[in-house]
Amino acid sequence: MESPFLGAPESSSVANAIFAVLGFAYLFPYHAMIQPVDYWHHLFPDVNMDVLISLHYTIMAVTMLCLLVCVGGVLRYTRRIVSGLVAQVLVLGLIPAAALLDQSTWRYMSILSSSVAIAIATSFLDSSVFGLASLFPQGALEHVQFGIGLSGLFAAILRVVSKACFTATMVETATMIYFFAGAVVVVGVFVAYLILLRLPVTRHCMHTTKQSVFEVRLLRKIWRSEGLVMLTYATSFTVFPGAISTIPSFQSPWLIDSAWWQLILLTAFATMDLVGRYAARWRFGLAAHSVWRVSMRLLLVPLILCSVKGVWLTHDAISIMLVVLFAFSNGYCGTLTVVFVNDCVDASELSASGMLSSLSINLGLALGAAVGFGLSRLLGF
């Protein structure tokens, strides 16, 4: 007989919406840190901070997730999610204080330390969000992925609004308000999680399915699928955000001087990434055994690098088209590869596989960020 809890569509719908909110919090602090390109250039004119922030963030996130996967089990959802959200709020609220430091070196260390702190906080959050969503009926994981895309778009829009409301000489004020607003948004995510815990479908899903902790045999079962998850995100972070944010405007150089061109590209990426995640509900014949085809998006990487260096592809329309295609494929392929992992495991392994998917995502992010850092040094962007 079908459970009465699972038979309440309104409860499941609210749960899915809240999982989208939790997915939003998963990468929102990171997106918030890479968006204010003009502010980082104001503080550090000769440094590509997006590349360095990504590198420090992803390395620490992978380190923490490895520890959590190996020794942390899979059942302490509330403790990890709440502690992660609280830490995110505190760090986002403190980031603007870096501008008050007198020496550039201290500012530099403060920003990179903030990226490390956010990575640690987010590790506690995402180590549980994917595992918890895996326990719910089909749709919860897709909503987590949709929320991840939504966080990028929201951070982009928030930065555009904060920049537009102030003059170019008030970049520090605009950025302070931007980060404070981001901290308030994460507080809203905390409230949403408390609501999730009170839903009947949550009590049913969390307490009726016995969940196993991580075992090596599970990794043997899903390593190919997790490898595709890692490849998808590694491909993306090879050129995002560092290379994409340095693509020049060939037809409108004034957009670069005002830092609007970088925001246009990052906003276009965030928008199409979200569209791709939404479109993942239509699989177009892709299944767990055929999703390897997503690796073809690797072909876009050298094209984007050509645009960065002004080789052959020297038109703004081409640059935007490449960013749009790359972002859409990131959202679409990133969502499907994670969802297909669940097709390979038993019900008792869902939580552990969700945690491994989170680790695979962050391993991919770290690998991509490392390659992107190397390319920035090699190609000089």
TrEMBL record:
The chain crosses the membrane at residues 12-31, 51-74, 81-99, 111-136, 148-171, 177-197, 227-247, 259-279, 291-312, 318-341, 353-375. The keyword Iron does not apply. Pfam families: Nucleoside_tran. It is a multi-pass membrane protein. InterPro entries: Eqnu_transpt. Belongs to the SLC29A/ENT transporter (TC 2.A.57) family. This is Major facilitator superfamily (MFS) profile domain-containing protein. The lineage of its organism: Eukaryota, Sar, Stramenopiles, Oomycota, Saprolegniomycetes.
